[in-house]
Amino acid sequence: MRSLLFLMCLLVSSSAFSVKITKQEVVDLVEKTCAEIQKTANYQDVLNKITAAEHPYKDKDNPAKYVFAYDDKVNIIAHPKKNLVGKNYHNKPDVRGNKFRDSIVNGALKNGTGWAEYYYKKPGAVGIKKKNAYYKLCSKGDVKIILASGRYAE
Hints:
about 150 residues, Beta-Lactamase, 5-stranded antiparallel sheet, 4 helices, about 35% helix, about 25% strand, globular
């Protein structure tokens, strides 16, 4: 009976991360977040909501769908995982050596928007999985905010 209960709990907890996120959902989340930053008087209010993991910045039904933000120096300035905020990720690679965070920030500063590919541990899965992140430069006055949201490729 205990092993059946454990198996059921495992299936329920891992199912939260098995909902596929489409490319369009990722783009929409970043675009809506940028629009919110641009229309609010104090952009920090939106960044605080991201860090507080408030819906829609972290989806209440699919916690794998969230938005995060960097500044132009590759510092994380907003993320639902609060322990990441304030950390600098310049020149820090993924497990395959790809400095994807630098690619996100540099791509946004150069092109405005784009996609970056990297490899990351997927919650509820075994091993490292390919992930794609959509990013966008979202300026507020002379402040440059790079928003991003990712999805696992499989």
